[in-house]
Specification:
The complex is a heterodimer of chains A (259) and B (260). With 259 residues, chain A is mostly helical. Chain A is 75% helix and 7% strand. In chain A, strand 1 and strand 2 form a beta hairpin. In chain A, helix 3 packs antiparallel against helix 10. The mean pLDDT of chain A is 93. Chain B is an alpha/beta fold. In chain B, helix 4 packs across helix 5 and helix 5 packs parallel to helix 6. Chain B starts with 5 loop residues before the first strand and ends with a helix. The mean pLDDT of chain B is 92.
Chain lengths: 259, 260
Protein backbone atom coordinates (compact mmCIF):
# COMPACT_ATOMS: atom_id res chain seq x y z
CA UNK A 1 0.00 0.00 0.00
CA UNK A 2 2.55 2.54 1.15
CA UNK A 3 4.85 1.58 -1.73
CA UNK A 4 2.22 2.70 -4.20
CA UNK A 5 1.85 6.27 -2.91
CA UNK A 6 5.55 7.06 -2.48
CA UNK A 7 7.47 8.35 -5.52
CA UNK A 8 10.24 6.18 -6.91
CA UNK A 9 13.00 8.61 -5.76
CA UNK A 10 11.95 8.26 -2.15
CA UNK A 11 11.79 4.52 -2.45
CA UNK A 12 15.35 4.55 -3.77
CA UNK A 13 16.47 6.57 -0.78
CA UNK A 14 14.77 4.15 1.60
CA UNK A 15 16.49 1.28 -0.19
CA UNK A 16 19.85 3.02 0.34
CA UNK A 17 19.10 3.61 3.99
CA UNK A 18 18.64 -0.13 4.45
CA UNK A 19 22.41 -0.18 4.38
CA UNK A 20 22.46 2.04 7.48
CA UNK A 21 25.10 -0.11 9.16
CA UNK A 22 27.52 0.53 6.29
CA UNK A 23 26.70 4.21 6.31
CA UNK A 24 27.14 4.42 10.08
CA UNK A 25 30.47 2.61 10.18
CA UNK A 26 31.70 4.62 7.17
CA UNK A 27 30.73 7.86 8.85
CA UNK A 28 32.43 6.76 12.06
CA UNK A 29 35.61 6.05 10.13
CA UNK A 30 35.43 9.38 8.29
CA UNK A 31 35.01 11.28 11.55
CA UNK A 32 37.78 9.24 13.15
CA UNK A 33 40.17 10.26 10.35
CA UNK A 34 38.92 13.84 10.49
CA UNK A 35 39.35 14.35 14.21
CA UNK A 36 42.91 13.01 14.31
CA UNK A 37 43.96 14.81 11.15
CA UNK A 38 42.52 18.09 12.42
CA UNK A 39 44.15 17.64 15.83
CA UNK A 40 47.61 16.59 14.62
CA UNK A 41 47.36 19.13 11.82
CA UNK A 42 46.58 21.80 14.38
CA UNK A 43 49.60 21.14 16.58
CA UNK A 44 51.99 20.73 13.66
CA UNK A 45 50.41 23.77 12.00
CA UNK A 46 50.84 25.81 15.18
CA UNK A 47 54.48 24.79 15.38
CA UNK A 48 55.00 25.73 11.71
CA UNK A 49 53.26 29.07 12.21
CA UNK A 50 55.37 29.95 15.24
CA UNK A 51 58.57 28.87 13.50
CA UNK A 52 57.66 30.94 10.46
CA UNK A 53 56.91 34.00 12.53
CA UNK A 54 59.41 33.80 15.37
CA UNK A 55 61.86 31.16 14.24
CA UNK A 56 64.76 33.15 12.84
CA UNK A 57 66.02 32.86 9.30
CA UNK A 58 66.77 29.16 8.96
CA UNK A 59 63.81 27.69 10.86
CA UNK A 60 61.33 30.04 9.25
CA UNK A 61 62.63 29.09 5.81
CA UNK A 62 62.24 25.40 6.58
CA UNK A 63 58.67 26.00 7.77
CA UNK A 64 57.92 28.13 4.70
CA UNK A 65 59.35 25.45 2.42
CA UNK A 66 57.18 22.80 4.03
CA UNK A 67 54.03 24.89 3.67
CA UNK A 68 54.75 25.72 0.04
CA UNK A 69 55.53 22.14 -0.96
CA UNK A 70 52.44 20.74 0.72
CA UNK A 71 50.13 23.44 -0.59
CA UNK A 72 51.66 23.23 -4.04
CA UNK A 73 51.23 19.51 -4.66
CA UNK A 74 48.05 17.44 -5.03
CA UNK A 75 46.75 15.77 -1.91
CA UNK A 76 46.22 12.54 -3.85
CA UNK A 77 49.88 12.40 -4.85
CA UNK A 78 50.90 13.05 -1.24
CA UNK A 79 48.64 10.22 -0.15
CA UNK A 80 49.99 7.74 -2.69
CA UNK A 81 53.55 8.83 -1.97
CA UNK A 82 53.14 8.19 1.75
CA UNK A 83 51.26 4.97 1.04
CA UNK A 84 53.94 3.55 -1.26
CA UNK A 85 56.94 4.87 0.66
CA UNK A 86 56.97 2.04 3.26
CA UNK A 87 56.94 -0.53 0.45
CA UNK A 88 59.99 1.06 -1.11
CA UNK A 89 61.70 1.20 2.25
CA UNK A 90 60.86 -2.44 2.76
CA UNK A 91 62.39 -3.53 -0.52
CA UNK A 92 65.49 -1.56 0.46
CA UNK A 93 65.53 -3.22 3.90
CA UNK A 94 64.99 -6.59 2.18
CA UNK A 95 68.02 -6.06 -0.05
CA UNK A 96 70.08 -5.28 3.07
CA UNK A 97 68.75 -8.39 4.81
CA UNK A 98 67.09 -6.27 7.52
CA UNK A 99 63.63 -6.81 9.11
CA UNK A 100 60.59 -5.32 7.35
CA UNK A 101 58.17 -2.63 8.46
CA UNK A 102 55.00 -4.60 9.29
CA UNK A 103 52.50 -3.58 6.63
CA UNK A 104 48.98 -4.95 6.77
CA UNK A 105 49.81 -7.48 9.44
CA UNK A 106 48.29 -5.69 12.36
CA UNK A 107 45.06 -3.96 13.22
CA UNK A 108 43.22 -2.56 16.20
CA UNK A 109 39.47 -2.96 15.78
CA UNK A 110 36.20 -3.39 17.63
CA UNK A 111 33.36 -5.60 16.46
CA UNK A 112 29.92 -5.02 17.90
CA UNK A 113 26.32 -5.78 17.15
CA UNK A 114 23.61 -3.20 16.76
CA UNK A 115 19.98 -4.09 15.89
CA UNK A 116 21.09 -7.46 14.60
CA UNK A 117 23.84 -6.16 12.32
CA UNK A 118 27.47 -6.90 12.99
CA UNK A 119 29.76 -3.92 12.52
CA UNK A 120 33.55 -3.79 12.60
CA UNK A 121 35.32 -0.51 13.19
CA UNK A 122 39.05 -0.56 12.47
CA UNK A 123 40.60 2.11 14.65
CA UNK A 124 44.13 1.61 13.51
CA UNK A 125 45.99 -0.43 10.96
CA UNK A 126 48.65 0.34 8.41
CA UNK A 127 46.46 2.09 5.85
CA UNK A 128 44.49 3.98 8.51
CA UNK A 129 47.78 5.21 9.91
CA UNK A 130 48.98 6.26 6.46
CA UNK A 131 45.65 7.99 5.84
CA UNK A 132 45.75 9.93 9.11
CA UNK A 133 49.41 10.77 8.52
CA UNK A 134 48.77 12.17 5.06
CA UNK A 135 45.71 14.17 6.07
CA UNK A 136 47.52 15.56 9.14
CA UNK A 137 50.64 16.57 7.24
CA UNK A 138 48.49 18.16 4.55
CA UNK A 139 46.12 19.95 6.91
CA UNK A 140 49.05 21.27 8.97
CA UNK A 141 50.26 23.36 6.04
CA UNK A 142 46.87 25.04 5.61
CA UNK A 143 46.28 25.44 9.34
CA UNK A 144 49.78 26.92 9.68
CA UNK A 145 48.84 29.77 7.38
CA UNK A 146 45.60 30.57 9.20
CA UNK A 147 47.46 30.48 12.51
CA UNK A 148 50.35 32.55 11.22
CA UNK A 149 47.91 35.18 9.99
CA UNK A 150 46.33 35.33 13.44
CA UNK A 151 49.69 35.51 15.24
CA UNK A 152 50.81 38.29 12.90
CA UNK A 153 47.63 40.21 13.59
CA UNK A 154 48.48 40.48 17.30
CA UNK A 155 50.36 43.75 17.76
CA UNK A 156 54.08 43.32 18.43
CA UNK A 157 53.57 45.61 21.44
CA UNK A 158 51.86 42.73 23.24
CA UNK A 159 54.98 40.59 23.25
CA UNK A 160 57.16 43.62 24.03
CA UNK A 161 54.98 44.49 27.01
CA UNK A 162 55.26 40.89 28.22
CA UNK A 163 59.03 41.04 27.89
CA UNK A 164 59.12 44.44 29.60
CA UNK A 165 57.80 42.89 32.81
CA UNK A 166 60.41 40.16 32.66
CA UNK A 167 58.51 37.39 30.90
CA UNK A 168 60.64 35.32 28.57
CA UNK A 169 59.88 35.43 24.86
CA UNK A 170 58.56 31.89 25.04
CA UNK A 171 56.31 32.66 27.99
CA UNK A 172 55.08 35.84 26.29
CA UNK A 173 54.21 33.94 23.13
CA UNK A 174 52.53 31.17 25.11
CA UNK A 175 50.58 33.23 27.66
CA UNK A 176 50.03 36.56 25.93
CA UNK A 177 50.14 36.18 22.14
CA UNK A 178 48.68 32.70 21.63
CA UNK A 179 45.49 33.08 23.71
CA UNK A 180 44.62 36.14 21.65
CA UNK A 181 45.69 34.61 18.34
CA UNK A 182 43.84 31.33 18.90
CA UNK A 183 40.63 33.20 19.54
CA UNK A 184 41.12 35.44 16.54
CA UNK A 185 41.90 32.51 14.22
CA UNK A 186 38.53 30.79 14.72
CA UNK A 187 36.59 32.35 11.80
CA UNK A 188 39.29 31.74 9.18
CA UNK A 189 40.35 28.42 10.68
CA UNK A 190 36.75 27.21 10.42
CA UNK A 191 37.49 27.00 6.68
CA UNK A 192 39.93 24.17 7.30
CA UNK A 193 37.62 22.55 9.83
CA UNK A 194 34.92 22.53 7.14
CA UNK A 195 37.16 21.43 4.23
CA UNK A 196 38.88 18.58 5.97
CA UNK A 197 35.91 16.16 6.39
CA UNK A 198 35.46 16.29 2.62
CA UNK A 199 39.15 15.84 1.89
CA UNK A 200 39.15 12.61 3.86
CA UNK A 201 37.44 10.92 0.90
CA UNK A 202 40.78 10.62 -0.91
CA UNK A 203 41.83 7.80 1.43
CA UNK A 204 39.35 5.70 -0.56
CA UNK A 205 42.21 5.36 -3.06
CA UNK A 206 44.41 3.42 -0.65
CA UNK A 207 41.54 1.17 0.39
CA UNK A 208 40.23 2.74 3.57
CA UNK A 209 36.58 1.93 4.13
CA UNK A 210 35.30 5.34 5.15
CA UNK A 211 32.00 6.85 4.10
CA UNK A 212 32.91 7.24 0.42
CA UNK A 213 34.15 3.67 0.16
CA UNK A 214 30.99 2.40 1.86
CA UNK A 215 28.98 4.47 -0.61
CA UNK A 216 30.61 2.61 -3.48
CA UNK A 217 29.85 -0.67 -1.80
CA UNK A 218 26.18 0.31 -1.53
CA UNK A 219 26.18 1.38 -5.19
CA UNK A 220 27.61 -1.96 -6.23
CA UNK A 221 24.81 -3.70 -4.32
CA UNK A 222 21.91 -1.52 -5.45
CA UNK A 223 23.03 0.40 -8.58
CA UNK A 224 21.30 3.43 -7.05
CA UNK A 225 24.21 5.71 -7.88
CA UNK A 226 22.56 9.11 -7.55
CA UNK A 227 20.61 8.24 -4.43
CA UNK A 228 23.70 7.02 -2.67
CA UNK A 229 25.65 10.14 -3.56
CA UNK A 230 22.78 12.31 -2.38
CA UNK A 231 22.70 10.53 0.97
CA UNK A 232 26.46 10.90 1.39
CA UNK A 233 26.35 14.57 0.39
CA UNK A 234 23.53 15.23 2.86
CA UNK A 235 25.47 13.56 5.65
CA UNK A 236 28.48 15.80 4.93
CA UNK A 237 26.21 18.82 4.79
CA UNK A 238 24.78 18.09 8.23
CA UNK A 239 28.18 17.33 9.79
CA UNK A 240 29.82 20.44 8.39
CA UNK A 241 26.90 22.67 9.34
CA UNK A 242 27.23 21.37 12.90
CA UNK A 243 30.98 22.07 12.87
CA UNK A 244 30.47 25.62 11.56
CA UNK A 245 27.76 26.37 14.08
CA UNK A 246 29.85 25.03 16.96
CA UNK A 247 32.78 27.19 15.93
CA UNK A 248 30.52 30.24 15.68
CA UNK A 249 29.32 29.57 19.20
CA UNK A 250 32.88 29.05 20.41
CA UNK A 251 33.90 32.36 18.82
CA UNK A 252 31.08 34.20 20.54
CA UNK A 253 31.70 32.50 23.89
CA UNK A 254 35.37 33.46 23.85
CA UNK A 255 34.64 37.09 22.95
CA UNK A 256 36.75 39.57 24.88
CA UNK A 257 34.41 42.08 26.57
CA UNK A 258 34.59 45.52 25.00
CA UNK A 259 36.34 44.36 21.84
CA UNK B 1 78.97 54.74 39.35
CA UNK B 2 77.66 51.84 41.46
CA UNK B 3 75.48 54.27 43.39
CA UNK B 4 73.50 55.04 40.27
CA UNK B 5 70.47 52.96 39.39
CA UNK B 6 71.23 53.44 35.71
CA UNK B 7 74.28 54.38 33.69
CA UNK B 8 73.95 54.78 29.96
CA UNK B 9 77.38 55.08 28.41
CA UNK B 10 77.99 56.11 24.80
CA UNK B 11 75.07 54.18 23.29
CA UNK B 12 74.89 53.86 19.51
CA UNK B 13 72.09 52.32 17.48
CA UNK B 14 71.41 52.16 13.76
CA UNK B 15 68.53 50.61 11.84
CA UNK B 16 70.27 49.52 8.64
CA UNK B 17 71.71 52.75 7.24
CA UNK B 18 69.81 55.04 9.58
CA UNK B 19 71.80 56.13 12.61
CA UNK B 20 69.26 56.69 15.37
CA UNK B 21 71.51 57.06 18.42
CA UNK B 22 75.00 58.47 18.07
CA UNK B 23 76.71 58.17 21.39
CA UNK B 24 74.18 59.00 24.09
CA UNK B 25 75.23 58.96 27.74
CA UNK B 26 73.42 59.83 30.94
CA UNK B 27 73.05 58.52 34.46
CA UNK B 28 70.23 58.23 36.93
CA UNK B 29 70.41 58.11 40.73
CA UNK B 30 67.87 56.46 42.97
CA UNK B 31 64.61 58.44 43.33
CA UNK B 32 65.64 60.68 40.47
CA UNK B 33 63.30 61.66 37.64
CA UNK B 34 64.78 62.55 34.27
CA UNK B 35 62.84 63.90 31.35
CA UNK B 36 64.03 63.28 27.81
CA UNK B 37 62.53 65.41 25.07
CA UNK B 38 63.18 66.33 21.50
CA UNK B 39 61.61 66.27 18.05
CA UNK B 40 60.13 63.08 16.62
CA UNK B 41 62.78 60.85 15.11
CA UNK B 42 65.39 62.14 17.54
CA UNK B 43 65.87 58.65 19.01
CA UNK B 44 64.01 59.10 22.33
CA UNK B 45 61.98 55.91 22.06
CA UNK B 46 64.92 53.95 20.71
CA UNK B 47 66.96 55.11 23.69
CA UNK B 48 64.35 53.73 26.12
CA UNK B 49 64.13 50.48 24.17
CA UNK B 50 67.91 50.17 24.32
CA UNK B 51 67.84 50.64 28.09
CA UNK B 52 65.63 47.60 28.64
CA UNK B 53 67.23 45.77 25.73
CA UNK B 54 64.05 45.33 23.71
CA UNK B 55 66.30 46.84 21.04
CA UNK B 56 69.88 45.99 22.00
CA UNK B 57 72.29 48.84 21.16
CA UNK B 58 75.04 48.34 18.57
CA UNK B 59 77.67 49.91 20.78
CA UNK B 60 77.97 51.27 24.29
CA UNK B 61 77.24 50.11 27.81
CA UNK B 62 74.13 50.07 29.93
CA UNK B 63 74.56 49.45 33.65
CA UNK B 64 71.64 48.65 35.92
CA UNK B 65 72.80 49.13 39.51
CA UNK B 66 76.34 48.47 38.34
CA UNK B 67 75.48 45.35 36.32
CA UNK B 68 76.31 45.62 32.62
CA UNK B 69 73.29 44.53 30.56
CA UNK B 70 75.34 44.20 27.39
CA UNK B 71 77.72 41.65 28.92
CA UNK B 72 77.27 38.12 27.56
CA UNK B 73 75.42 35.66 29.77
CA UNK B 74 73.24 38.29 31.45
CA UNK B 75 69.75 37.01 32.25
CA UNK B 76 67.87 39.67 30.32
CA UNK B 77 64.46 38.51 31.51
CA UNK B 78 65.50 38.94 35.13
CA UNK B 79 66.98 42.36 34.32
CA UNK B 80 63.86 43.50 32.48
CA UNK B 81 61.78 42.57 35.52
CA UNK B 82 63.73 45.33 37.31
CA UNK B 83 63.03 47.89 34.59
CA UNK B 84 59.40 48.84 34.25
CA UNK B 85 58.12 50.24 30.98
CA UNK B 86 55.03 52.28 30.17
CA UNK B 87 54.20 52.45 26.49
CA UNK B 88 52.78 55.20 24.34
CA UNK B 89 49.99 52.91 23.14
CA UNK B 90 49.56 51.24 26.56
CA UNK B 91 50.06 47.72 25.16
CA UNK B 92 47.78 46.23 27.78
CA UNK B 93 47.16 42.51 27.29
CA UNK B 94 43.79 42.79 25.66
CA UNK B 95 42.55 39.32 26.65
CA UNK B 96 43.16 39.95 30.36
CA UNK B 97 41.21 41.99 32.90
CA UNK B 98 42.94 45.01 34.43
CA UNK B 99 43.78 43.04 37.56
CA UNK B 100 45.27 40.17 35.53
CA UNK B 101 47.26 42.58 33.39
CA UNK B 102 48.93 43.71 36.60
CA UNK B 103 49.22 40.31 38.29
CA UNK B 104 50.44 38.20 35.36
CA UNK B 105 54.05 39.31 35.83
CA UNK B 106 53.86 38.75 39.58
CA UNK B 107 52.71 35.20 38.99
CA UNK B 108 54.73 34.16 35.98
CA UNK B 109 57.92 36.09 36.67
CA UNK B 110 58.06 36.55 40.43
CA UNK B 111 56.34 33.27 41.21
CA UNK B 112 53.74 34.60 43.65
CA UNK B 113 50.67 32.49 44.32
CA UNK B 114 47.47 33.53 42.63
CA UNK B 115 46.12 35.11 45.83
CA UNK B 116 49.31 37.00 46.70
CA UNK B 117 49.71 38.25 43.13
CA UNK B 118 46.11 39.41 43.15
CA UNK B 119 46.51 41.28 46.45
CA UNK B 120 49.67 43.00 45.26
CA UNK B 121 48.09 43.82 41.91
CA UNK B 122 45.13 45.36 43.69
CA UNK B 123 47.52 47.53 45.74
CA UNK B 124 49.15 48.75 42.54
CA UNK B 125 45.74 49.49 41.01
CA UNK B 126 44.87 51.46 44.17
CA UNK B 127 48.00 53.52 43.66
CA UNK B 128 46.79 54.58 40.22
CA UNK B 129 43.17 54.91 41.39
CA UNK B 130 41.99 52.05 39.21
CA UNK B 131 41.06 49.47 41.88
CA UNK B 132 37.36 49.76 41.16
CA UNK B 133 38.02 48.93 37.50
CA UNK B 134 40.00 45.79 38.35
CA UNK B 135 37.52 43.42 36.72
CA UNK B 136 37.26 45.35 33.46
CA UNK B 137 38.96 44.43 30.22
CA UNK B 138 41.21 47.00 28.51
CA UNK B 139 38.73 47.58 25.70
CA UNK B 140 36.16 48.63 28.30
CA UNK B 141 38.44 51.37 29.64
CA UNK B 142 39.24 54.88 28.38
CA UNK B 143 42.74 55.63 27.15
CA UNK B 144 43.61 57.39 30.39
CA UNK B 145 42.37 54.47 32.45
CA UNK B 146 44.28 52.02 30.27
CA UNK B 147 47.46 54.00 30.70
CA UNK B 148 47.00 54.05 34.47
CA UNK B 149 46.65 50.26 34.41
CA UNK B 150 49.83 50.23 32.31
CA UNK B 151 51.56 52.21 35.05
CA UNK B 152 50.20 49.83 37.70
CA UNK B 153 51.52 46.88 35.70
CA UNK B 154 55.00 48.39 35.83
CA UNK B 155 54.71 49.50 39.48
CA UNK B 156 53.53 46.11 40.73
CA UNK B 157 56.83 44.50 39.77
CA UNK B 158 58.60 46.89 42.20
CA UNK B 159 61.21 47.73 39.56
CA UNK B 160 64.40 49.69 40.20
CA UNK B 161 63.23 52.25 37.67
CA UNK B 162 60.36 52.82 35.27
CA UNK B 163 60.73 54.01 31.69
CA UNK B 164 57.86 56.09 30.29
CA UNK B 165 57.70 56.28 26.49
CA UNK B 166 55.49 59.28 25.68
CA UNK B 167 52.82 58.03 28.06
CA UNK B 168 50.31 60.79 27.30
CA UNK B 169 50.83 61.48 23.61
CA UNK B 170 48.25 58.95 22.43
CA UNK B 171 45.59 60.33 24.77
CA UNK B 172 42.72 62.72 24.20
CA UNK B 173 43.56 66.07 25.82
CA UNK B 174 40.99 65.70 28.61
CA UNK B 175 42.51 62.37 29.66
CA UNK B 176 46.11 63.54 29.91
CA UNK B 177 45.57 65.15 33.31
CA UNK B 178 44.60 61.97 35.17
CA UNK B 179 47.69 60.15 33.88
CA UNK B 180 50.05 63.03 34.69
CA UNK B 181 48.50 63.26 38.16
CA UNK B 182 49.34 59.61 38.81
CA UNK B 183 52.85 60.08 37.42
CA UNK B 184 53.40 63.09 39.67
CA UNK B 185 52.26 61.12 42.69
CA UNK B 186 54.51 58.14 42.07
CA UNK B 187 57.41 60.49 41.30
CA UNK B 188 56.87 62.30 44.61
CA UNK B 189 56.63 58.89 46.32
CA UNK B 190 60.21 58.26 45.26
CA UNK B 191 59.93 56.21 42.09
CA UNK B 192 63.02 56.37 39.89
CA UNK B 193 61.85 57.39 36.44
CA UNK B 194 63.03 58.18 32.93
CA UNK B 195 60.23 59.95 31.12
CA UNK B 196 60.09 60.76 27.43
CA UNK B 197 57.47 63.48 27.24
CA UNK B 198 56.65 66.92 25.96
CA UNK B 199 54.62 67.73 29.07
CA UNK B 200 56.71 70.64 30.26
CA UNK B 201 54.51 71.22 33.31
CA UNK B 202 55.29 67.72 34.48
CA UNK B 203 59.00 68.21 33.77
CA UNK B 204 59.03 71.47 35.70
CA UNK B 205 57.31 69.84 38.67
CA UNK B 206 59.45 66.73 39.17
CA UNK B 207 62.41 66.49 36.79
CA UNK B 208 65.84 66.80 38.37
CA UNK B 209 67.29 67.09 34.91
CA UNK B 210 66.03 67.42 31.37
CA UNK B 211 67.85 66.08 28.34
CA UNK B 212 67.23 67.44 24.86
CA UNK B 213 67.88 64.87 22.17
CA UNK B 214 68.07 65.67 18.46
CA UNK B 215 69.16 63.35 15.65
CA UNK B 216 70.53 60.83 18.10
CA UNK B 217 72.72 63.26 20.00
CA UNK B 218 72.29 65.02 23.36
CA UNK B 219 72.17 68.68 22.35
CA UNK B 220 71.63 70.19 25.74
CA UNK B 221 70.95 69.10 29.29
CA UNK B 222 70.15 70.90 32.50
CA UNK B 223 67.55 71.61 35.13
CA UNK B 224 64.02 72.60 34.10
CA UNK B 225 64.85 76.17 35.21
CA UNK B 226 67.80 76.17 32.84
CA UNK B 227 65.61 75.18 29.91
CA UNK B 228 62.71 77.50 30.67
CA UNK B 229 64.80 80.54 31.62
CA UNK B 230 67.96 80.39 29.58
CA UNK B 231 68.26 77.62 27.01
CA UNK B 232 71.59 77.87 25.23
CA UNK B 233 71.16 76.48 21.74
CA UNK B 234 69.00 77.90 18.99
CA UNK B 235 67.67 74.37 18.32
CA UNK B 236 66.26 74.07 21.84
CA UNK B 237 64.82 77.58 21.84
CA UNK B 238 63.03 76.86 18.59
CA UNK B 239 61.71 73.55 19.86
CA UNK B 240 60.44 74.99 23.13
CA UNK B 241 58.68 77.75 21.17
CA UNK B 242 56.86 75.12 19.13
CA UNK B 243 55.85 73.34 22.32
CA UNK B 244 54.60 76.58 23.81
CA UNK B 245 52.44 77.21 20.78
CA UNK B 246 51.06 73.68 20.98
CA UNK B 247 50.37 73.84 24.68
CA UNK B 248 48.70 77.19 24.66
CA UNK B 249 50.91 80.01 25.79
CA UNK B 250 48.79 82.04 23.50
CA UNK B 251 50.00 85.47 24.52
CA UNK B 252 53.26 84.93 22.70
CA UNK B 253 51.53 83.40 19.73
CA UNK B 254 49.12 86.32 19.47
CA UNK B 255 52.00 88.73 19.80
CA UNK B 256 53.75 87.01 16.90
CA UNK B 257 50.59 87.20 14.84
CA UNK B 258 50.18 90.88 15.64
CA UNK B 259 53.73 91.59 14.66
CA UNK B 260 53.24 89.91 11.26
Amino acid sequence: MIFQVLPQELLDLLRVLEFWDHILIGLAKTMWLYVWALLFGFFLGLLLALLRHYGGRILSRIATGYVEIVRGTPLLIQLLFIYFLPFSINSFLDAQGLPFIPIGRWSIYVTSELFGRTMTMVFLDHITLMGILTLSLNSAAYQAEYLRGAVMSISSGQLEAAQSIGMSRRSGILHIVLPQALRRVIPSWSNEAAYLPKYTVVVFYIGLTELFAQAHYIISETFLTLSVYIVVALIFLVIITLISKSLDILYKRTAIPGL
Amino acid sequence: MEKNVLNVVDVWKAYDELEVLKGVSFELAKREVKVIFGPSGSGKSTLLRCINMLTPPDKGEIYLSGQNLIAPGVDLNAMRAKIGMVFQHFNLFSHLKAIDNVSVGLRRVKGFTKEDARAKALDALHQVKMAEWAEHYPAQLSGGQQQRVGIARALAMKPDLILFDEPTSALDPELIGEVLQVMLEIAKAGTTMVVVTHEMGFARAVASEMIFLDQGVVIERGTPEHFFVSPETERVKHFLRQINILYGHHEELLKEFNED
